[in-house]
Amino acid sequence: MKLTFRGAVRTVTGSLHEVEAQGRRYLVDCGLYQGRRAEARRRNEGFAFDPRSIDGVLLTHAHMDHAGRLPTLVRAGFDGPIWATAATRDLAAVMLRDSARIQESDAAYWNRKHPDEPIEPLYRAADAEAAVGRLAGVPYGRWFDLAGGVRALFLDAGHILGSAQVLVEVRSGALAAPRRVLYTGDLGRRDVPILRDPETAPVPVDALVMESTYGDRLHPRGEDMQRALAEAVGRAAERRGVVVVPAFSVGRTQRLVYHLHRLIDDHVLPPMDVVVDSPLSTDVTEIHRLHSECFDEEARGWLERGGDPFGFARLRYTRTSDESKALNARQGPLVIISASGMCESGRILHHLRQRLPDGRNLVLLVGYQAAGTLGRRLQEGASEVRIFGETVGVRAQVETVSGVSAHADRLGLEAHARSHRSGLGAVYVVHGEEDASLALARRLSADGLPGVMVPEEGRAYEL
Ligand SMILES: [Zn+2]
């Protein structure tokens, strides 16, 4: 078995891993790289291998930094199956269509502003549709065959609805011992609302491919996060400001809605409207309702009693762009949650352009902001930023509330690696900025785990 790491190596986006066994080649994830425009363009356009030589894709979850290049892969000639859990298949279908819409409208907007240097969208609706047609749903916890001697198993990752870790097993002969590699995908946290906890593989694994987004950090306790959230939003409400929250449409948005709902119900926050401005959100919320098999007991109980973990009286979802534009006229106090989570594309850009110049407003960062993204520049205190090629002054407050994250922190990652210690021969640390990956690798090594390394992009490792 041969593992090659093609993306999300010493960086946090663009997950793309290759596994070769029994003469077949598979990918685990095929995600968009997010960062500075020119580099993102270069990394997202082509592949370092021939997509026609890939026999299948195993998709861990529907976030675009894991699934967002599937349309490009299919357009370049990939014609195999894309296996995912049933919930990931449904989420990925709406999210890939939405991603194509964003690619097309961002390119159109850019081209209107810069007619002398026009760009092509990365992909179009038809490419997304072709990728959606290759998605095949597989339940958690059931082995499925990829080819003779190669099979895979999805285990809950506890990160977002449908998220999975992928266990790949290869048998080279009837008598030979199987070799197994576990890809964690994005690993969630224990004891957060709605989702189940991450699972441990039911059999020993030879190699572990671990994410390390928060490999050098600890999350605050749940109640500390709630207090920080209440204080930041409460101060903005007193100023009658508008709170703009960039958030992924899936995962963090649902979690944030859940916390705001509780804070308003408990009178910690004044009654204020919360708008989730995303054409996706209604679809995504419906898909959550369809997949109660992914929920923990608390959320299932809530649903059975007729409750709604994803809505409350002061919450509105907007779908059309006219509804979105109408938000520009709204005065605070008001919370607008919109994608994308790192402010790289989508409706959030229009809200930032509208709200950044007013000192009463608050940009609330609740997710990881990768280097080179607009979100990171705001987080680092930029006094002006470029949006759609225009300079926008930043007078709004910018605050970060950590702990709303859907990722395990350093302790969670370490515990997960330790739970696979028996039989383990190698740990490849990926999906983190270099410092975070190296820090986690050092700690895992110090903990006595064998063969821990941060792999090099493009290099093949024999297992
Ligand atoms: Zn994710």
Q: How do you describe this structure in short?
A:
The protein has 463 residues and is of the alpha/beta class.
* Beginning-to-end CA distance, first to last residue: 5 Å
Outline the biggest β-sheet.
Answer: 7 strands, mixed
- State the total count of DSSP E strands: 22
Unreliable spans: none
Question: Rg to the nearest angstrom?
Answer: 22 Å
The CATH C-level class name of the largest domain = Alpha Beta
Question: How many separate domains make up the residues?
Answer: 2
Q: What is the CATH architecture descriptor of the largest domain?
A: 4-Layer Sandwich
The dominant shape is globular
Helix content: 25-40%
Biggest β-sheet: strands ordered side by side in the sheet = 6-5-4-3-2-1-22
CATH homologous superfamily classification of the largest domain: Ribonuclease Z/Hydroxyacylglutathione hydrolase-like
- Strand coverage percent: 15-25%
Instruction: Kindly report the average pLDDT value.
Output: 93
SS-based structural class? alpha/beta
Ions, cofactors, ligands: which are bound?
zinc ion
